[in-house]
Design goal:
Distance between the termini: 94 Å
Shape: elongated
Order of helices and strands: HHHHH
Amino acid sequence: MKFTKYIVFLFAFGLAFPAQSQNDDKPSLIERFRLKRDNRKAKKRAKAAYKEWEKNYKQRQHDHYMMQDSKTKQMMLDGQKQARRQVGGRSDSWWRRVRNRL
């Protein structure tokens, strides 16, 4: 008998307090469309801002390079060449690797 009262009490308690997801208002079709559109516009703005930043960065880099003397320019170019080689995983040329194997 006590068990059935307990079950009835829990059932009544469940009816009195619905789950949180039942209380939340779902956005209407128009609101969902606006949210989607706003997200697309935000992505587009972020992409444009990044492109602008990258363009400015490259321009500042070029300006800095052009202000150097010829010896420093050559040193900077050698450093870039070495960095490109290291990105590929090859810091030595092919003939040096072959020579070291012999």
